[in-house]
Amino acid sequence: MRSPLAALALCLAAISTQAIAQDKPKQLVMISFDGAGDNKLWQRSRDLGTKTNARFTYFLSCTLVIARADAKQYRAPHGKLGRSNIGFAVDKAEARARLTHVWQARGEGHEIASHTCGHFDGKTWSVADWATEMATFRSVLKDAWKANEAANEEPDGWKDFIDNEIRGFRAPYFSTSAGLVAAEKRAGFTYDASLVTKGPAMPEKKEGIIRFGLPLIPEGPSARPLIGMDYNLFVRHSGGFDDLSRSAEFESRAYSAFRAAFDKQYAGDRIPLQLGFHFVEMNGGAYWRAMERLVTEVCGMADVACVTYSEAVSLIGDHAKPAADSGL
């Protein structure tokens, strides 16, 4: 039986731990999805958000709401008519289903942000190039219900949502140029999520744009750092080719990396943790399962908030640091 003194010591330790936790900010976790194509994964992610009270950011590519038959409606800066690095919707029915997911996700508290349209590398793009692609993104989304023969199904407030609620941007391949920030300001974006940081880091502020970076996190037996994103895990684990026989192993490695990155911040300075994913089940869905396990475990904790990037901007407030003059 525990002695009264031992019981008192444990009680005091618990009170002290609680007081320390109360002095810390909530641990923010931002889960994002690039492209946001596969309708089955739209539903799966939305179901996960409902189950765990997590809210996600979907960086949508606009060619995924253009039916393949209408591909020539789109041209990227310096690109060929009807060309997209990520393709188009198979048909108008698939595009309509995706539009429905977009609207329903927005109603559930998730965030829709921009990942441009055709997923091209913009490292040499000018301000005008970025501005053109950003304007195309909004115009395609605004007219998407009509273009997919569903004008009568367009939700009330859809166009206002496209004009006024899509405030975040992530460049494909995290590839930026000196013209990006100016174009983002011109297009009405308030934050950018195109950077990569050496580890979890507070966002920086450049010319009025809050700039987030996906962190490098330790992974694998040798704890070598890599970007906290499913594609980077996929390349490291199997060279970018599916190896279904090792799916469980890859899931375990990814989960261990995600959880260790979370635990370090949760026990430390509580810098927001960002992890990125795609609507592709690489290595048999290993990375989605690892993400779902993490989200299920941590998003219900009292001092954790799994939030969208826009919510993080509001919660972080003036704590964003001035950007170094990198030219980007």
UniProtKB/TrEMBL annotation:
Annotated signal sequence is 1-21
What the entry lists under InterPro entries is as follows: CE4, Glyco_hydro/deAcase_b/a-brl
Q: Which UniProt key words apply to this protein? A: Signal
Is-annotated flag, keyword Signal?
yes
Q: What is this protein called?
A: Polysaccharide deacetylase family protein
| Taxonomic classification | Bacteria, Pseudomonadati, Pseudomonadota, Alphaproteobacteria, Hyphomicrobiales
